[in-house]
Design goal:
Elements (H helix, E strand, L loop, with lengths): L3 H8 L13 H13 L9 E6 L2 H10 L11 E8 L5 H18 L3 E2 L8 H6 L6 E10 L14 H4 L11
Antiparallel strand pairs: 1-2, 2-4, 3-4
Helix pairs in contact: 2-4
The chain binds flavin mononucleotide.
The site of flavin mononucleotide (FMN) has 11 residues, from loops.
Length: about 170
């Protein structure tokens, strides 16, 4: 029986080039709802997400995130921040990121995680209070090229053991 969630996990790749085409409103809505619906430790939801769609702001983001200049060409982006005082904020926000990436790919919208902390410039520019840490920025858009599911991963047995470390799966 086909498992659509697994297929989404299997085929998703980092997409860094986007078509110059807007995303439908319902698709964008699903992406932020996926973040909103994500589980967090003790259900504290210690996060905030800023949806950015104005071209000038997307360009600004592209200039602020050193490892994500291509955000400038995305149809939309989400800034992901978590409350600094939350012990689990980093994990909770990371899980919300994965929800958004998978939900987007389920609609054939490409994305990628850019940045990893040290995004104080983004926090200030987009008006997030200093009680938040910006974890990353996710650009979204229809992929410019066909995305072929060619993942480069370590062999399964190198990263998964059965029962005890080092025992391969049969
Ligand atoms: C925590 C994290 C941070 C990342 N940061 C960046 C980044 O700043 N810029 C970028 O282009 N890609 C970034 N990536 C994407 C990874 O480089 C990419 O997912 C990885 O090389 C595997 O490629 P694939 O997703 O196409 O299989 C990041 C991914 C993760 C999980």
């Amino acid at each position: 029986m086909a498992n659509e969630v697994f297929e989404t996990v299997r085929t998703i790749l980092a997409v860094r080039e986007y078509q110059d085409k807007p995303l439908p409103e319902d698709v964008v809505r699903r992406i932020v709802e996926a973040a909103h619906l994500t589980a967090s430790a003790s259900n504290t939801q210690p996060w905030h997400f800023v949806l950015v769609r104005e071209r000038e702001r997307l360009r600004k983001l592209g200039s602020l995130v050193r490892t994500g200049p291509y955000i400038a060409n995305a149809a939309a982006a989400v800034i992901v921040a978590y409350e600094k005082q939350s012990r689990t904020g980093l994990s909770d926000a990371s899980r919300a990121i994965q929800s958004m990436l998978l939900a987007a790919w389920g609609d054939r919208v490409g994305s990628n995680w850019t940045g990893f902390g040290s995004l104080e410039n983004v926090r200030i520019e987009f008006g997030l209070p200093d009680t938040y840490e910006v974890l990353g920025v996710l650009p979204f858009g229809y992929p410019k090229r066909k995305v072929i599911g060619n993942k480069k991963r370590k062999p399964l047995d190198e990263v998964v053991s059965a029962e005890r470390f080092g025992t391969p799966l049969t």
